[in-house]
Write a structure and sequence with these properties.
By secondary structure, this protein is of the alpha/beta class. The protein is built from eight helices and twelve strands. The radius of gyration is 18 Å and the shape is globular.
């Protein structure tokens, strides 16, 4: 039997999994139309000026950043995953750039808007690192800038958790197991490819609106608005799929 290739214990799980080609295979069916509609709704709601400078924080391969740039904005996409940034850079131009960056550190430049999308928060084991990220977002904004965190709605996700399923993509059977433990939502991912077994773990802190409000108050951040989906409809604690927060 072949050995199981897994996240090395010495590294954060997200450093290996998000930089793996299998991450992008598993999630290749993400809805770009929905993502673009969200960007349309968000930029319209924020009433961003033409050529506004936007930071896409944890941009992955840059699908949101690329579309925002097509809307006419000056966009910088940053992510910790080097392979994703290499791929994203193939789309760079004078008003679209990508670089490797740790979200716990504030940027040297200031932005009119900072977008942290698609549950790209709450990965760190230490609570202080999640708090540091919030502070870094605030410090990366211009005086009149807005920030957006698009997070899962923990109550909804936990209540609707599918414990086990198999998802087949590109001929690979991804065996997914989901559970809640120690205030985190886990997803164990097991699959085999080219006679090699792989195992990865996704783990995100089950942060509620109350958790974010407490952190924001501590960071002297002003929460302006909350939405429950990509059409920017009202947030309902148990029924909304997303927790979208606008703050400054």
């Amino acid at each position: 039997m072949s050995e199981v290739l897994s996240n090395p214990k010495s590294e954060n799980w997200f450093e290996t999994w998000f930089d793996s080609p299998y991450y992008h295979i598993l999630y290749k069916d993400r809805n770009d139309t929905e993502a673009q509609l969200f960007m349309d709704n968000l930029t319209h709601y924020l009433n961003l000026p033409e050529e506004a400078k936007i930071l896409d924080l944890a941009c992955g391969k840059g699908r949101h950043a690329i579309y925002l740039n097509q809307l006419g904005y000056d966009v910088t996409g940053v992510d910790l995953a080097e392979n994703s940034i290499t791929e994203a850079n193939k789309s760079s131009n004078e008003t679209l750039r990508f670089r490797v960056h740790d979200m716990r550190e504030h940027t040297t430049e200031k932005y009119d808007a900072v977008f942290n999308l698609f549950t790209s928060f709450g990965y760190f084991d230490k609570e202080e690192d999640n708090f540091k990220t919030l502070v870094a977002i605030k410090e990366s904004l211009t005086e009149y800038g807005f920030a957006v965190i698009d997070f899962l709605n923990a109550n909804y996700v936990i209540n609707n958790l599918v414990p086990e399923e198999v998802k087949t993509v590109d001929g690979i059977d991804f065996h997914l197991k989901r559970y809640v433990k120690d205030g985190h939502i886990y997803k164990e991912i097991d699959f085999e490819d080219n006679n090699q077994k792989f195992h990865f773990t996704e783990k995100v802190r089950a942060l509620t609106l109350q958790d974010f409000e407490a952190m924001m108050e501590k960071a002297d951040i002003y929460l302006l608005d909350i939405f429950g989906d990509y059409k920017l409809r009202k947030f309902f604690k148990n029924d909304s799929e997303r927790l979208i927060m606008i703050f400054k």
